[in-house]
Amino acid sequence: MNDTLVGLAVALGIGLLIGAERERRKGEGPRRAQAGLRTFGLAGLAGACALFLGDALLLAVVTGGVAGFAAIGYWRSRERDPGVTTEIALVVTVLLGGLAVRDTAAASALGVCVAILLAARTRLHRFVKRVLSEEELEDGLVLGAAALVVLPFLPDRPMGPFAALNPHMHWLIVVLVMAVGAAAHVASRALGTRYGLPLAGFVSGFVSSTATIGAMASRAVREPSAAQPAAAAAVLSTVATVVQLSAVLAVTSPAVLAVLWPALLGAGIAATVWGAVFTYLGLRAPPAAMEMVRGRVFSAPAALGFAAIVAVMLVVAAAVTRWAGDTGLVVACALAGLADTHAAAVSAASLVRDGKIEAAAAVLPVLAAFTTNALMKSVFAVIHGDRRFILQVVPGIALTVAGAWGAFLLTR
Fold it and tell me: What is the rounded distance in angstroms from the CA atom of residue 47 to the CA atom of residue 66?
């Protein structure tokens, strides 16, 4: 009985919540809309009662009946209000009422989302018509298709030369680069280029610093006025790499972190200082010079090129590892670092955790991976950026590596 009452209460609450929003837009007098607070409340209860008294078939019949009444109401009011939002919301309310019987939490969450979607009509219309550009809409559709249509159907297994290629992983890299560019674009639109790009670069660095640098390099070429914030974002993404690497080592092998923390601290300080310099220079620029250029959200060719280069480097790394054997941990980690620092660090730290090597023996492999990964970042900065971006970012990456090795050598 308690479950029955909860389901009915949630169904009624969903109907009243959606109906309250519709009631505010219903109007008054003979020209008012046909559905309001009471209608939506009853529709939610109807869906719940249909499942309590019968099954999915009865719910379908009730939904069809409500849809018929909604169609009649639309036919009577179509001349003064050609929209069908209220009619569709009424049918959705019945279905949510039925869902409340099966899964109250999901029904409640969806009911709130529907109410928010209805209430945000003016803002959404303004965003789509006046804020969102044609290029941004196209890029959003491309990103959605790449992530939701193409990615799930690609095989997720090693194949190709030396079994070093994984189509699912490489396309995920493409999606990642596009998503990083989209995040930077959204941050720039929301906070302005001067504030949005550095923040987006730092946050995106936790996903992939290399991808972030490639995306920011393309951004700097498209928008020369945003070169300094883009450079700050690129360098600050390496700060995220250091923070994430420290967290990974803390979880995998605290013994390695205890030995390696001076090097990580030195790298983090160097990257933070270099990124802060360009962030400060960007903030000092006149606001008019930093206005957002409305154009492409990301560069699809740059994303495809990034994934292609990573694939080539993985094949090379697999070939060298096979020929050199498994005895050279430093060489293996250095080659793995071309694609990802954290994977190489976890490999070395796992050997320490399993008692196969000492913690001190894992320092050089991790630093080698960090160095080769920095080399890869510099390569992408050179490939995708212009001369100004290269001169701003590559020295910062080199300074980060120097800070890591310098702190390591000083504390030996």
Answer: 10
